[in-house]
Each structure stands twice: as C-alpha cells, then as structure tokens.
Amino acid sequence: MCLGTQNHDQLLDKFNKDSFEKLTLMRNLAKEMFGDRSDFIIGVNGSLARREYTSGSDVDLFFLVLNQEIDPIKEKQNDFRSRLCDIGIKMPASGGVFEEPLPSNDMLATIGGNDDTNIFITRRLLFLLEGDWIFNKESFDLTRKLLIERYVDEGIEDKKICLFLLNDIIRYWRTICVDYEYKVYGGGKAKAIRLIKLRFSRMLLYFAGVVAVGETKDLSYKDKRDKLNLLLSEPPIERLRSVIGDDFILPLQLYAEFLTALDDPEIRSQLDQVGDEGLSTEQYLLLSEKARSFKNTLLHILLTKLGTAHPVIKALLL
C-alpha cells in the first residue's frame, strides 16, 4: 500500500466528495423534517465532519439545545437518527458521548472545574476543532464564535498566543491518549483500529489545533478571534494546507494512505480484531510504521515552521 505523491490529492478529493455528498443528504433531510425551527442545532463530528468519510465510518451526530428544554429535542433527535438509519447512514453504538442533547450554554460555560467531565471536554473540543453543521447553520456558527470568545479574553496582549485554548487542546489530546488505555484494558475491545486512529486522525486533529493557536501570535484580541474563527471553520486538512503549504505534502501523503487503508474492508477487518489479535497483522505493522513517520514529519514541521523560540513550542514543553 504505497501511494505516489502524484495521486494522494485525488484520493483525498474522493473522501472529500463522498463526505460532502453525505453532508448534503443529511442537511436536506434535516431541513425537510424540521423546517425553520431555531431552538436546536444539529452538528456532526468525526470523519464526516473532517471530510474523511470512508466505507467503514459511522456518523458522530450531535444535538445542541438553545432553550434548555431537552426532552422535546431528544424526541426530535431520535426521529432524525431513525430516518438516517432508514437511508443507510450508520449511527454509532448507543450510550456514547453524543447520546444526549446538550444545552449550548452548558458547553460554553463549563470549561474547567469539577463539572468539566470527559463528556464535556470531548463535546466542546470536537465541536471547535472539527465540528460541522447539519441544521441551523447560523446558530452553529454563532456558537463557535461565542466559544472562541470564551477562550480569547479582551485583555490578552497582542504578543501572546491564546494559551487558555492551547492548554485545553493539550488537555484533550492527553485525555484521549489515557482513555485509549482505559478502553482497551482487559482485552475485550479491538486495540489495533483504535491505536491507528489515535496515531493518525486524532493526532492530526491535535496538531491542527496547535497550529491554529500558533497563528494568533502578534495579533490584537479581535484579530486573534477572527483568525481562529476562520481557521477552525475549515476541516483540519484544509486548515493545515492553508497555513503550512508545501511542507504539508509528505504528512498528507501518509495520511491519505491511512484513510485508504480504513476504506478497504479487508484491511479494516484485520484491524478490527478483538484484543491484541489485530496488533500482529501485516496491515497493522505497516500502518504503525507509517504512523511513526507521520508523527516525525509533524514534529519536524512544528520545530521548523514555528521554531523552538515560539511560545507555542514553549507551552507544549512546559
């Protein structure tokens, strides 16, 4: 499984096209079902939101409530999920992070403290770093803008980066790394697929968040907010392309190979084997080697593009 640099863009364009078709289908269905309602937001995270939808992807759908009345929206959520299943769109297993509608005010207010559980951290950071809208785009965009304003105070100095946001991104990345060990403890779940996703898609999301914060240096607080709003409204791959340019070609090639592997049912079935079984397969070992190269290329970009004196690098170390 080796792709030439000449065709990785074609492969990524395929995943992007497939994702956009699914997004359009879901947006049209939501509009048909809910019309001009404005009391909730429907959004999506995961591979679909990142424009990386593969044959094995499910859809991390979420509902945000704008008026605190959760129960009526829960019914709408169930109806929408049922309709999506009817048209062949795969929903995640029940009981996950996005199972319940969440009041948007809770997501905006609960940053840090005892109430900021893994569920809150996950929903907030995924909304910000990769989320995309399905229904009520205007309120979705406003919520992202308000969340950025929570992270970027008016009193922040121009020379400083948005450290509040960066620390939360770092915290989320470390949380999902620790949670990987929790999820696979005991051997009852597939390790290989989770570990490969952690080392590719989760790492890319983290990296894209760090790079976005790096772009806020030497800007006024208003410009910091605007820059973040612009960058975080783009899927991570496009965000990194726009900031890094040609230096992003090599990691992008490796990432395209990762997505191509996940899109292959035979390869995915090897990675989906329960417990340690998938870790000894040829495909896992190959992808693991590519993951090491992927990580090294991202690290090289950080150290060369930003430089060791950049406040982002210092913040990552201490």
Topology:
Blueprint: H1 8-34, E1 40-45, H2 46-49, E2 60-65, H3 70-86, E3 102-103, H4 104-109, H5 118-129, E4 132-135, H6 137-151, H7 163-184, H8 192-214, H9 221-232, H10 236-244, H11 249-262, H12 265-271, H13 282-306, H14 311-317
Parallel strand pairs: 2-3
Antiparallel strand pairs: 1-2, 1-4
Helix pairs in contact: 1-11, 5-7, 7-8, 8-10, 8-13, 11-13
What does this structure look like?
By secondary structure, this protein is mainly alpha-helical. 63% of the residues lie in helices and 6% in strands. The chain has two domains: 1-116 and 126-151, Beta Polymerase, domain 2, CATH 3.30.460; 155-318, no CATH class. It has a four-stranded mixed β-sheet, sandwiched between helices. Helix 3 links the parallel strand 2 and strand 3 (102-103). The longest helix has 27 residues, at 8-34.
Task: Compose a concise summary of this entry.
With 318 residues, the chain is mainly alpha-helical.
Biggest sheet statistics? 4 strands, mixed
Order of helices and strands: HEHEHEHHEHHHHHHHHH
Side-by-side strand order of the widest sheet: 3-2-1-4
Count of individual beta strands:
4
Please tally the helical runs, counting DSSP H or I stretches of 4 or more residues.
Answer: 14
Bin the helical content.
Answer: 55-70%
What is the overall silhouette?
Answer: globular
Query: What's the pLDDT, averaged over the residues?
Result: 93
- Poorly predicted regions are 1-6
The CA-CA distance between the termini, in Å, is 39 Å
- Output the radius of gyration: 19 Å
Question: What is the number of independent domains?
Answer: 2
Tell me the strand percentage band.
5-15%
Secondary structure category: mainly alpha
InterPro entries: NT_sf
Organism: Azorhizobium oxalatiphilum
Protein name: Polymerase nucleotidyl transferase domain-containing protein
